[in-house]
C-alpha cells in the first residue's frame, strides 16, 4: 500500500511541475535590436515564449507576448498584424522600439512550428 501512495504522490508531483520561465535578458534584447542582431533578439523572445501559459499561435498569445516584452524590458511593442504574412508557414508581426535618446525600431516576425507553437523567425526594418 505504501508503494501505491508513493507512486501516486510522485506522479502528481511530476504532472504538476511547470517549466520555470527563463530570465529575460532585457539589455541583450535592446542591444540586439540596436545592432540588428537577430540571434540576441531571438534568445530574448524565446525566454518570454517559454514563460507563456500557452505557446499556441493565436492572436491572444501574440498580444500577451507583446505585453510581456513591453512591460519586462521597457521597450515599446505593438502587434502590427496577426497571421497577415501569407508565407508558408504564415507569420505575424510585432513592431518594437527601444527607448532612450536614440530609439531604434524594428519588426519581429513571429511564426509557428509544426505543433502550432509560436516561434521567432526574423527581424527587419
Commentary on this structure:
This protein is α+β, with helices and mostly antiparallel strands and 125 residues long. It has one domain (22-124). The protein contains 4 helices and 4 strands. It has helices spanning 2-16, 26-34, 38-51, 59-73; strands spanning 76-85, 91-97, 105-112, 118-124. The longest helix is centred in the first third of the chain and has 15 residues, at 2-16. It is globular, with a radius of gyration of 18 Å. Mean pLDDT is 87; it is low at 7-11 and 13-20. This is Lipoprotein.
In short:
With 125 residues, this protein is α+β, with helices and mostly antiparallel strands. The protein is built from four helices and four strands; from the N terminus they run ααααββββ. It comes from Flaviaesturariibacter amylovorans.
Amino acid at each position: 500500500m505504501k508503494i501505491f501512495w508513493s507512486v501516486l504522490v510522485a506522479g502528481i508531483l511530476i504532472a504538476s511541475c511547470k517549466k520555470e520561465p527563463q530570465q529575460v535578458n532585457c539589455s541583450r534584447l535592446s542591444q540586439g535590436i540596436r545592432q540588428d542582431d537577430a540571434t540576441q533578439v531571438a534568445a530574448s523572445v524565446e525566454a518570454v515564449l517559454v514563460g507563456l501559459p500557452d505557446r499556441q499561435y493565436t492572436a491572444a498569445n501574440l498580444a500577451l507576448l507583446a505585453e510581456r516584452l513591453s512591460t519586462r524590458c521597457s521597450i515599446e511593442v505593438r502587434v502590427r498584424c496577426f497571421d497577415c504574412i501569407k508565407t508558408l508557414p504564415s507569420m505575424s508581426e510585432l513592431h518594437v522600439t527601444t527607448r532612450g535618446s536614440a530609439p531604434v525600431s524594428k519588426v519581429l516576425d513571429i511564426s509557428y512550428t509544426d505543433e502550432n507553437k509560436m516561434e521567432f523567425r526574423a527581424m527587419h526594418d
